[in-house]
Design brief:
The protein has 635 residues and is an alpha/beta fold. It contains 18 helices and 27 strands.
């Protein structure tokens, strides 16, 4: 199977039953979440599980640290059954195969982590294994996993083999490093044992906080499973995605790109918020992909596409767009009649007493219509206007032409900078391709009306590359939902998936019902940041919290963000515990990690440099640590 978004074929899987839920084959995407109540607190877990189930969760997971926690979840299940609620419960187990054995007798599904099912917590020390030592380690895994499989078979319990980029074993990392190859092999070692046992009731996940790593791992795993004739369903998620807008954007892109290629049978949008809020976001993402149709305007250039290529389309520069320039943000202010100082502030500019200067998230271009400009414009702000219907609003404004106008101006096309609005079908017309070839100063605004817009626009990029056209391309998408979260989820999944694939030199979002300039600008920059094509703000890696978390992570994240959000050159992690902490923070500059009740460890990279810090002073100590390493700048 070739993974493209054009045919809308799901990655072929067999059926897995988890309680009363079916995962895989052609079943709808299953929505799940994880309770964050204290492990072992039966009453709190019972109450929150009812809340998330009422919100629409189809599976509910709990952190399990030990046998007592496993027994507590069994009691929560009993309470739910008394209320005639039979939603499957899942035990999430780390570092304790014995806890997994107990849980498998009591709940509907058990999640284990290959990185710590048998192995101890990773120390990131490098060790060379002989062939015999490697085989002995695999034999230990097989012995314990077989015991768990026996229990699962006896109690009709499903199993999730959940690999985390942040918690690979030292053994795997000694051979593969902390890489996607290591993630895939970590999963395959366990899957081969399951296949040997003919145990089919298994779901797989490979998660990371880095969208590109997470995407690569799933594509590579799917290919390897095909090679070894395996068809296990896949659970998708982005770990430590964060909260609010950034958490939703990051998850929508990471999960959405895979769903768009037919990969994924169950999803969770992990947010550092009340888990109830995860459900509607996940439902909106699943719905966005549910009814997509195959493209009718396909081409044979899909063979050139590789989902692991993150720099597919290479363009030349036109002004501040394309080439090695940052991917730009276009703001649509067609509904506004005045461009004044207030509007410039909404567009992300600040006045320094002499002139307007761009902040790190200032719009690079604005589309206007019948507007009066009553302020001095910033030097780098491009004004775009519709050439056929709007008068030129100011000197040096850039005209936007439609496809017919573009052909009509052929004789003068080389002489001036312009934008042209085109669709995928336009790029099948020889006259358009020839005009683009002769118009190096033209920026393409790629639009789509297709029900499967992601695939439609990807097809356009394939046509451009095949025709050796390298004009810069602005990915424009139009949405009509009046629900903000739906707009966020859909636009992130559609445009971010292209950007991650290396397609697009700019993003332009429109919505006639949601026209707030500041909101839409922030959304655009969040998409650029999450796609890793333009870093404009401090990046935060934050886990959604669970029963292992020893502090109020949501409030701590808010405090850390409020005091460090001007450090746009840094990546800061806020982690509830050390299960994924050091590993998931591998590319973070600094980390705040819960170690025990009211105690915190502070990290510089993967090294804990301050341990056993009181939570009351931990944020201030984090700031001091940043200052000690000369990474602090004053706001």
């Amino acid at each position: 199977m070739i993974f493209t978004p054009f045919s809308i074929k799901r990655f072929p899987t067999h059926e897995v039953r988890v309680g009363n839920i079916t995962i895989g084959v052609d079943s709808d995407i299953v929505i799940q979440t994880m309770c964050n109540t204290p492990a072992g607190n039966i009453e709190a877990g019972y109450k929150q599980s009812k809340e998330v189930i009422s919100a629409g969760a189809q599976m509910v997971r709990f952190a399990v640290r030990n046998r007592a926690d496993a027994e507590s979840i069994g009691k929560i299940k009993e309470l739910l059954l008394k209320d005639n609620i039979n939603t499957p419960l899942v035990a999430d187990v780390h570092f304790s195969s014995q806890a997994a054995f107990v849980a498998a007798k009591l709940v509907d599904k058990v999640r284990i982590n290959p990185g710590n099912f048998i192995d101890k917590r990773a120390t990131f020390d490098t060790k060379t294994y002989t062939e015999l030592e490697w085989k002995e380690e695999l034999n230990k895994i097989e012995l314990s996993l077989n015991e768990l499989i026996d229990i699962c078979v006896a109690h009709d319990t499903a199993l999730r083999i959940g690999v985390n980029h942040g918690s690979l074993s030292d053994r795997i990392m000694s051979k593969y490093g902390n890489t996607t190859e290591g993630m895939v092999e970590s999963a395959m070692e366990f899957l081969r044992i399951c296949k040997k046992r003919v145990f089919q009731n298994v779901v797989i996940s490979l998660k990371s906080s880095n969208i590109r790593i997470m995407n690569s791992a799933y594509f590579m795993l799917a290919k390897q499973m095909q090679t070894e004739d395996m068809h296990y369903p896949l659970h998708l998620g982005v770990t430590e995605a964060g909260n609010d807008l950034s958490g939703r954007v990051r998850s929508a892109i990471g999960i959405g790109r895979l769903l768009g290629h037919g990969i994924g049978d169950t999803i969770r949008i992990s947010l550092t918020e009340n888990p109830v809020k995860e459900i509607p976001a996940a439902q909106k993402l699943a719905k966005h992909f549910k009814h997509r149709k195959p493209l009718t305007d396909t081409n044979n250039n899909w063979k050139e596409y590789n989902p692991l290529d993150f720099s597919f389309y290479k363009s030349h520069e036109v002004g501040n767009i394309g080439g090695k320039k940052p991917v730009i943000a276009v703001c649509d202010i067609r509904n506004y009649r005045v461009l004044d100082n207030i509007m410039l502030e909404k567009l992300g500019y600040k006045f320094n007493g002499k002139k307007w200067i761009a902040t790190s998230q200032a719009a690079d271009a604005v589309y206007v219509k019948d507007i009066e400009i009553i302020t001095e414009l910033p030097e780098n702000l491009s004004i775009i206007y519709e050439a056929g219907t709007t008068k030129m609003p100011c000197e040096n404004a850039t005209p936007l032409f439609n496809n017919l106008e573009f052909i009509y101006i052929a004789d003068k096309s080389k002489e001036f900078t312009k934008w042209v609005s085109l669709t995928n079908s336009d790029l099948s017309k020889p006259a358009i391709i020839e005009q683009l070839r002769n118009s190096p100063k033209t920026v393409i605004v790629l639009e789509t009306m297709s029900q499967n817009g992601y695939a439609d626009q990807m097809s356009a990029f394939l046509k451009l590359k095949s025709a050796q056209i390298n004009n810069p391309v602005i990915v424009k998408r139009n949405y009509v939902s009046d629900d903000w979260e739906t707009f966020v989820i859909e636009s992130s999944a559609d445009t971010g998936s292209l950007l991650v694939s290396g397609m697009g030199n700019g993003v332009w979002l429109t919505n006639p019902f949601l026209t707030d300039v500041e909101d839409n600008r922030r959304l655009t920059f969040e998409i650029l940041q999450a796609s890793r094509v333009r870093i404009s703000q401090t990046e935060y890696i934050a886990c959604p919290s669970c029963g292992r978390t020893q502090f109020d992570i949501e409030s701590v994240l808010a405090e850390v963000r409020s005091k460090t959000n001007h450090l746009t050159h840094l990546k800061i992690a806020v982690m509830g515990c050390i299960v994924n902490g050091p590993g998931e923070m591998a590319d973070a500059d600094y980390g705040y990690v819960g170690a025990a009740p009211n105690r915190v460890a502070l990290y510089k990279g993967k090294v804990a440099v301050k341990k056993n810090i009181s939570a009351d002073i931990a944020v201030e100590q984090l700031i001091e640590l940043i200052k000690e390493n000369n990474d602090w700048v004053e706001p």
